[in-house]
Each structure stands twice: as C-alpha cells, then as structure tokens.
C-alpha cells in the first residue's frame, strides 16, 4: 500500500468525522503537514537545510503545524485538527502515533544535543499536552489532554496532569462486545488497539 493511501486509511480509522478518503485527502491538514515534512526531512538530510526550513515554515503558515525538518517521524502518524502543534528538531516519533491540536514536543535545554522527546510506537497524545525534554514515552502510552510531561513514561501508561502523574493502562482480557465497547470508549485515542487485539489496554 502506498504511504499516502496508508495514511488516509489510518486517518479515517481515527477520525470519526472523516467521511471518505477523497475528503480526508483534501481537508486533513495534519496529513498535509506530515506529507510535506517527509520531503522537508529528505532535504534536511541532504544538506538543503535552508530550503527545508523555509518549506517547513510555509507548511506552518498553511496548516498551523510546525514540524522541524530534522524531526524523525515513523509511519501512519496522524495529527487530528493540528493547529498549534510544534515538533522540535531532535524529536523522534515511532509508528502509529496519534496526536491532537496544541501538542508540543519541545526542548528544555539550549544545547545543540538531543533535547526533544522520543515517542515510541502506538502512543496517543491528547489535545494541548506539552511533552518536553529528551524523555521517552513508552509504547502504547496515552498522554491526557493538557498534561505536562517532563519525565519518562513507561510503556502502557496513562499520564495526566501538571506535572503528569502516571498510572498503568488497565488490561481487558477477552474480546466480548462489551469489553470492546468499554475499551473503545475509554481509549478513544487508541481505538485501533481495542478493535484488533482481544487483550486491550485502556
Ligand atoms: C487521559 C485520558 C486518555 C483518560 O481516559 P480514560 O481512561 O477514559 O479515563 P476516564 O475518562 O475514565 O478518567 C479517569 C480519571 O482521570 C481524570 N482525567 C481524565 N482525563 C484527564 C486529563 N486530561 N487530565 C486530568 N485528569 C483527567 C478523570 O476526571 C477521571 O478522574 P476520577 O477518577 O477522579 O473521576 C483522556 O481523558 C484524555 O485526556 N484523552 C485525550 C482526548 C483528546 O485530547 N481529545 C481531543 C479531541 S479533539
């Protein structure tokens, strides 16, 4: 499957407001930002840094999403709504990560070193959350809306509040419709997991 088709399918799975692939292709500014970022990242890594920066700023103007061209982003990354997202130069994002508007993956240091977060596969980051510093957000964890995360988050955790406090995601065993419904409601951001894995974490 082509990366664009894959992204469109993923966006439709995660956005209940998405009606069809064509409409999503036209209006999903989170996807536009990610598609252009792939090109800007290539330019950045091939020493066309100024062109990459200018391109990234143009995308910011167009979408309200600022992704530094140096940031490393995996497959099926979906930003819903998008406006106000900032992703720093040394941020690393795995596969199947989802985030909402107003998220910052920012730095806490002015050193020219790795200073932005690493977000592992399957993480969901709620609207307005600030994740700052060279910390690691473990696989499948969920960052609540408006949380401020300044320390590592283990895999399968939920982080909420300022500064964020951590709790393990609950595990639901069994794939009964009731369990799935509960898991889907509880993880809305992690819906895929709920529908594909009978051992669901919320
Ligand atoms: C963090 C989150 C994943 C928790 O979802 P959940 O597992 O279903 O948890 P619940 O809704 O059952 O809430 C559990 C507790 O955490 C609290 N809580 C939930 N989200 C919170 C948040 N973002 N910050 C602080 N506390 C939060 C609830 O009030 C509840 O507290 P209580 O036990 O004292 O009643 C979810 O609330 C969230 O923030 N998701 C992001 C959604 C988002 O950004 N949507 C944008 C759409 S445009």
Automatic annotation (TrEMBL):
GO terms for cellular component: cytoplasm. GO terms for molecular function: serine O-acetyltransferase activity. GO terms for biological process: cysteine biosynthetic process from serine. It is an enzyme of class 2 (transferase). Gene3D superfamilies: Hexapeptide repeat proteins, serine acetyltransferase, domain 1. InterPro entries: Hexapep, Hexapep_transf_CS, LbH_SAT, Ser_AcTrfase_N_sf, Ser_O-AcTrfase, Serine_acetyltransferase, Trimer_LpxA-like_sf. Coiled coil: none annotated. SUPFAM superfamilies: Trimeric LpxA-like enzymes. Keywords: Acyltransferase, Amino-acid biosynthesis, Transferase. Its EC number is 2.3.1.30. It catalyses: L-serine + acetyl-CoA = O-acetyl-L-serine + CoA. Belongs to the transferase hexapeptide repeat family. This is serine O-acetyltransferase. It comes from freshwater metagenome. The lineage of its organism: unclassified sequences, metagenomes, ecological metagenomes.
